[in-house]
Amino acid sequence: MAEKKEVDRGKAISKPKKKRSQNKNPKDPENPNNLQNLQNSKNPKNTKDTKNAKKRNTEHPALHIIKHTPLKVSYPFDQPLEKRPILTIKGISKSFNKKLVLKEVNFEIDKGDIFGLIGMSGSGKTTLFQLMAGVINPTSGDVQVRRDILFEKNNPEKPDYVSVYNNQTRLRRKIGYASQMPSFYEHLTVEENLQLYGSLYGLKRKKIKERSAQLIKMVGLQEEKDTLASNLSGGMQRRLDVACAMIHEPEILFLDEPTSDLDPVMRRQLWNLIKEIHKQGKTVIIASHILEEVERLCSKIAILHGKKIVGYGSLEELKELFAGYQEIRIRVESQDYDNIMRRLRKEKLVIDRMFEKEGNLLLYTNRASKNLSKILRAIERIDEKIVSLDVSDAHLGEIFEMLARKQEEQ
Amino acid sequence: MKIINLVLKNFKLLLRSKTSALIIFIGPLLLVSLLGMAFSHSSTFVLTASTYSPSYSDLSESLVTKMKNQNFRVLRQDSLENCISSVKRSESQACILFPPGMKLGADKTNKVTFYVDYGQIDLVWLILDVMEARVSERNTEITKDLTKDLLDRLWYVKDRTNTGKGKLDFLKQSVDEIKDVASGAKLGVKGIDLNVSFDANIDDSEKKADEILLLVGDVETDVQEAFNEISASSNTISSAASSLRSEAGNDTTMLENLDKINEELDKIDTKLSDLRTGTDNNNVDMTTKVGDIKKSLSSVKTSFEDAKQKVENMKKQKDQVVPRFNNLTTDIENLLISIDGVDQLLDQILLKIDALQITSPDKIVNPITTEIKPISIQRTHYNNLFPGLLVIIIMITGILLGTTLVSVEKKSKAFFRNNIVPTSYFTFSLATYFTALSALFIQLLIFISVSAFFFETEVLTSLSVVALIIFLASTVFIVVGMFMGFLFRTEATATLASITLGSLFMLFSNLVIPLEALSEWMKQAVQWNPFVIAESALRQSLLFNLPLAKMAMNLGVLAGYAVGIFLLLVILQGALRRLAFIHFRKTHEPQMVKEKKAAKKLVPDISKVENPANELLIKSPEEAEAEISGKQEKK
Fold first, then answer.
1. Contact B416/A130 with Cβ under 8 angstroms?
2. Of these four, A109, A228, B75, B591, which has the most CB atoms within 10 Å of its CB?
3. Are residues A251 and A165 in the same domain?
4. B602 touches chain A (CB under 8 A)
5. What is the pLDDT of residues A343-399, one digit of tens each?
6. Helix (H), strand (E), coil (C) string for B115-170
7. Buried (b) or exposed (e) across B427-436, using 16+ Cβ within 10 A?
């Protein structure tokens, strides 16, 4: 019988589906999907009724699910070690000068995953990354790595997981880290950097040469191998940084914002590189604020917001939380979206959010199919000419935003 | 292997920065060239002196001339104020005030005043010493001349005294002789026996002379009778012989004998005749002579009378002379005593003169001469300064290299990765140390080689000891520099701190201000200054060739510093590097965010346009709502 251990991770990773409220009257204040209710719920100046309604059942069903369903983490201890998570983060908290940055963060990373950690700028992604990599020590909690990753000979009498903070030297041989800012010597060439770090990782000369050549080819810097690192472009520098992190064939590769400040072409090149690394069987952990990147690459995602993990799971699992939640993108000729939004509010449709962005009106609702026609009619009534219309499923961004808002409400 | 790779990496970084490469390799060359050209001579300092006198005399002019001849620049000023202000303006090192009409005289005191700037503390004593020496030289010359004159007179006196003494001896001798003569004369006079008896019977003598005459006559008569008898006998014999002849016949023997008898009778006859003649003559002579005797006797008688008279007179004279001889003797004795006294005085004078141990004017004027002998084998200022220069290079380069290497690494982008590799902090620090040591070694090699080759600095005689001292000193300063690099967050601050520390080391050493000028407690403290210790050890080794055993204390302290500071660094470097890492994260991560935000403002992110949901992560929902409400309010 597998032991089940409940760990409060704040948000659900898997939960039983609950039936939605049967109240479908949008004007009914009891209807949790009532737009007004939803809007009022954001506004602290709302009436007591609204607040009470909020308390009762005015929140988004997905949010409700997340709030009330504790996350269950299972450690299938009867499974062999190789099949268990490679890295577990247990109740990690971190403060800097009494300022709390992370609070009781828990999640796991499986071997062979491309794991994405997303969060806003300044949310603590890098801090969490560095905690996971053992670069800095937590205020409380622990990060544990599977013993067989660090130790070649597995001792059945010893625990299966060891703390990264007690085995830093061994850990460093097994992880690669590419930080936000490329970290190498600018006045050394590409090859010299790789050779230096190869020697610092304790590789033999022959191995260093071999590995350098491999990596230079892999990251596509053959023509620049004798170029000083400072003379490389941003993308090349990033690739060199990744190569330096890979020189010693690490088991786990940490990539902190790998494609920030890169143009789309470079970004895609780096994504391909990451995929290639992953194909080699490495576990890749990416911290990013670029959701597209995470969506494309990551098999599992953790969402960091408000010092906590607000969402964790595969993209499908997360999306499932918001099934039916869609984005409607409308562009009108006049571009007078304020008028349209006023009009839509009057219609009292169930729209979670709407705002103008880059010449488009974006609306988020879990009733796109029902609301769409009403929305279009409302727009027509005010004599606006629709130029384009697009309906799509909720992106990770919306999921994130929803979760973030929920966290703030708590 | 890791250390070697790290050292090689550091060198590549150093050399790829052209300014660093220039400083490491060209710096010492430039330094040694400039210093060598400036100080590679042994001549004394050329100083400038301003002089002023209300009126220059021959003596003051001679002093000025002497200074000019001794490599001094002399500027004559027209007033004391100008003279002093020339020192204040650093146009000259001292102002010399000569008294008006300076000259030598029994009643004159000549005071020469020096106005110097004590601010030039490294030069002021030299200036005073040199200038006073120049003035004193002239003083000495004059004194020597006077002394020589005195001595010459003294020798003249001695010479004349010796001569006088000789004459005095002669005089003494003569007086002695006179004394002897006088004594003898006195004795002689006293001993003259004038008691002569003049009772000689001359008359009796005359009578006896007559008797002699009578006798002579009688003798003559007897002799004549004897002659006659002898002749008669001879004739008888001859007749007998003739008779015998006739009887002998043919007896030859008898004949011969008779011949012989005849010959002998002839001889007797001859002799007899001669005798007779002679006797006659003698008788005549005797008679004459007796007559003369009688005459003489009568003259003698007369003389006797005179002599008697004279003897009487002499007696009287003697009685008068003898007391005078007594007085004479006394006077002579007194004279001798006086002569002795003078002789003694002269002896004393000569003794005193001879007792003069120092007879050379030079030695009287300068009884104690000083000779300054260099105890080192070096010949030029550069070579004498060489130990100090070496330590300056070691200190400045060591501290700055240590600081720079650590600061540059802390600032470098690679610092983050260096903190997550499985290489200990100790390895990194050791590599930094070896890099700095190697670079310093290269600099020193260039410096020492050029010095040895071009400026003939003696280094090879004590190379092993020098190498040990250099190694220890380099270690101390490099590790101190590394400490500075770790302690301070920014490169500028660390460099400034290093320069300040280096300046302190140098200020409190013999190079700028003599340690003897410090207060006692400070002097004791400064003895522990590693710069002072290293410079002292190098000086002892390079200039004086002292063996290692004699420098054990200095080397021990240096080694203690090196080991102690290195251990401290090893112990603290973990904490220092962690602090540096925290600072690195603080400075770089927010920077990255700022840079990204700045970049976003300038260049729209196309990816965000593609996926507007990305904006959600930049703008919070409240921000979006606020934006909308803001727009609504505007409308």
1. no
2. A109
3. yes
4. no
5. 888 887 777 778 888 888 888 877 677 778 888 888 888 888 888 988 877 666 666
6. EECCCCHHHHHHHHHHHHHHHHHHHHHHHHHHHHHHHHHHHHHHHHHHHHHHHHHH
7. ebbbbbbbbb
Residue A278 and residue A366 in one domain: no
In-domain check, residue A1: no
Q: What residues are paired with A302 via a beta bridge?
A: A117, A312
Q: Looking at the predicted structure, is the pLDDT value of residue A196 above 90?
A: yes
Residue A279 lies in a domain: yes
Is B15 an interface residue toward A (CB < 8 Å)?
no
In the 3-class helix/strand/coil scheme, how is B397-446 assigned residue by residue? HHHHHHHHHHHHHHHCCHHHHHCCCCCCHHHHHHHHHHHHHHHHHHHHHH
**Residue A91 and residue B205: Cα distance in Å, rounded?**
187
Half-sphere exposure of B172 (CA within 13 A, CB side): 15
Q: Quick one: A234 and A332 in the same domain? A: no
pLDDT at B633 over 60: no
Instruction: Please tell me the CATH superfamily of domain B48-147, with its number.
Output: abc type-2 transporter like domain (3.40.1710.10)
Domain hosting A42: range is: 17-68
User: Cα separation of A115 and A298, whole Å?
Assistant: 5
Q: Which two tokens stand for residue B417?
A: 């990765």
State how many domains chain A has.
3
A150 domain-assigned: yes
- Terminal Cα distance for chain A, rounded: 35
Q: Does B1 touch chain A (CB under 8 A)?
A: yes
Q: Does A312 touch chain B (CB under 8 A)?
A: no
Which pLDDT tens digit goes with each residue over B72-121?
788 999 999 999 988 888 888 888 888 888 776 655 667 888 888 776 65
Listed by number, the residues of chain B in 386-425 with a beta carbon closer than 8 Å to a beta carbon of chain A are: 412-423
For the stretch B24-74, pLDDT in tens is 667 766 776 776 666 655 555 667 888 999 988 887 888 888 777 777 788
Based on the domain organization, do A98 and A163 belong to the same domain?
A: yes
Using the beta-carbon criterion (under 8 Å), do B16 and A267 form an inter-chain contact? no
**Banded model confidence at residue A206, pLDDT cuts 50, 70, 90:** very high
Domain annotation covers residue A175? yes
Query: Six-digit token pair at B38?
Result: 């400036």
70-89 of A, contacting B, C-beta below 8 A = none
Q: What is the ipTM of this complex?
A: 0.71
Taking the domains of chain B in order of start, what are their residue ranges? Answer: 2-39+379-413+423-569, 48-147, 202-355
Q: CA-CA distances (angstroms) from residue B109 to B59, B105, B140, B315?
A: 13, 8, 15, 79
Same domain, residue pair A93 and A142 = yes
Q: How many residue contacts between A and B have a Cβ separation below 8 Å? A: 149
Q: What are phi and psi of A142, to 5 degrees?
A: -150, 155
State how far the Cα of B88 lies from the Cα of B95, in Å rounded to an integer.
10
